[in-house]
Design brief:
The protein is of the alpha+beta class. It folds into 2 domains: about 80 residues, no CATH class; about 210 residues, no CATH class. It contains 11 helices and 7 strands. The strands form 2 sheets. A 5-stranded antiparallel beta sheet has the order 6-5-4-3-7. Strands 1-2 form a two-stranded parallel ribbon. The termini are far apart.
Length: about 300
């Protein structure tokens, strides 16, 4: 801890070489160094020094988040790897709350995951397992979708939604995917320009669609247009189904971030918008809800 206090003092030095040494300390220390700074920041009682440490934490936590998201993007580029949504959720949550510890994140995320694991099994069908997931997620833990007209940050920031159990369509969807995939269920977004539909897959084949916005209602028939009609209104976006594709990568993360960025734009928080821009770039820079002028596709 004494070494950290010395590092904090060095951070105030105007000499670029000294600041570079501090940067190198946190780059080498990674999450452990940032976690130590986080703990010290929480315990610090002197206002001026606490403000300094918070500024440091914001800076180095963001760097750690961007590095982590780039690693997840590389992992997702490997077709043999899964996206690690749970880890990505922790990284994204830190953008708005650098004081969030990994333990604090897991305390909110893991209970529904473990409860789901206690209920599902390989002996059950996909529909049976998703029904059990839905019971845990919507009934036992009480997650629900807020009014689509309630465009508030409190209903979208991941940890606020995890604690309050009510959230925007994008936040609830991301949490649902995190819980499902952490429990080993192959639930992924079927993506198209402007949105997505959650689907359960097996051997790269869609077995059924899931309406996350309506208690996880299952649609066995392959009627994507019906799901799109129901969910487009909840998402509040224009959609073009076109050639819908199942994505097992970072697509749901990007859509969540795009929606979050829109809320920050509405509130005039330019710094937060820039943080989201950097996060989306780290995940590949491709967007779903914002239709770009070029013809690049993801």
């Amino acid at each position: 801890m004494e070494q950290l206090q010395y590092i904090v003092d060095l951070w105030r030095d105007p000499d670029p070489g000294v600041r570079a040494s501090v940067d190198a300390y946190f780059e080498k220390g990674g999450e452990a160094a940032v976690s130590l700074l986080r703990s010290a920041c929480i315990e610090e009682m002197v206002p001026d020094r606490k403000a300094l440490m918070e500024a440091m934490l914001n800076s180095y936590c963001k760097r750690l988040v961007i590095t982590g998201l780039k690693e997840i993007a590389l992992r997702c580029a490997d077709a043999t790897c899964e996206c690690a949504l749970r880890e990505a959720g922790y990284l994204i949550a830190q953008l708005s709350d650098p004081l969030l510890s990994r333990a604090g994140y897991m305390e909110q995320i893991m209970p529904p995951v473990l409860a789901t694991l206690e209920e599902i099994s390989d002996a059950k069908t996909g529909i049976e397992n998703v029904n059990l997931l839905n019971h845990v997620f919507y009934k036992r833990y009480g997650f629900s979708v807020a009014s689509p007209f309630d465009m508030s940050l409190d209903n979208t920031l991941l940890m606020k939604v995890a604690k309050g159990r009510v959230g925007s369509p994008f936040a609830i969807s991301l949490l649902y995917f995190i819980v499902a995939q952490s429990a080993g269920l192959p639930v992924y977004p079927l993506c198209f320009t402007g949105g997505f539909v959650p689907v359960y897959t097996e051997n790269d084949k869609i077995l059924f669609n899931i309406n996350v916005f309506h208690q996880g209602e299952i649609f066995v028939e392959n009627n994507i247009s019906k799901m799109v009609k129901n969910q487009a209104a909840a998402l509040g976006v224009n959609v073009d189904v076109g050639e819908a594709v199942v994505k097992k990568d970072q697509s749901i993360l990007v859509m969540y971030l795009e929606f979050l960025q829109m809320l920050y734009s509405n509130s005039g928080d330019t710094a937060a918008q820039m943080d989201i821009d950097d996060a989306i770039e780290a995940l590949g820079g491709h967007r779903f809800l914002t239709i770009e002028s070029d013809e690049d596709e993801w």
